[in-house]
Amino acid sequence: MSEITAKRSAAPVAKQALFLLFRIGSERYALRATEVAEVLPRLPLKPIAQAPNWVAGVFAYRGVVVPAIDLSALTFGHPAEARTSTRLVLVHYRPDEQQPSRWLGLILEQATDTLRCNPEDFQSYGLDNRQAPYLGPVREDAQGLVQWVRVNDLLDDAVRSLLFPAPLGAQS
User: Fold this and answer.
1) Which residue numbers delimit the CheW-like domain (predicted)?
2) Whose CB among 43, 110, 123, 131 lies 3.0–4.6 Å from 85's, allowing a Cys bridge?
3) Does the pTM exceed 0.70?
């Protein structure tokens, strides 16, 4: 192997990652594909009494009762449009590294495309949006900006305890 070939093979390669794209209104957002367990059609949900309006309800999936939230309602206060491209996306929710991940359903509009890019292409947009900590950095492309949604930052403590109560005997 020549010295030039060795240098080429040792050059750092940008790590590509796959993202699931979706929309809220006309705005584009992305979820890291490794956080997605499955993309399902929109399913009937059982409402949860006294939950915030963006908590869409629960559904049974493979023997587990899974809570679901409407990301459009959470982010902008209006429910996702009922379109043929509106999906119930099952994600791995793990806000605490000490705990195992749990399934969380996300109602997402136009969740039909993917994006492969280097995660470092997403850049901070300079605002400290404490009311929506799940809205991460943005990436610009020919279609405009796409914003990364961080799954583990979706729920605050109060909603997390409502949707994922501690098992009996686990209270301290």
Assistant:
1) 16-160
2) 110
3) yes
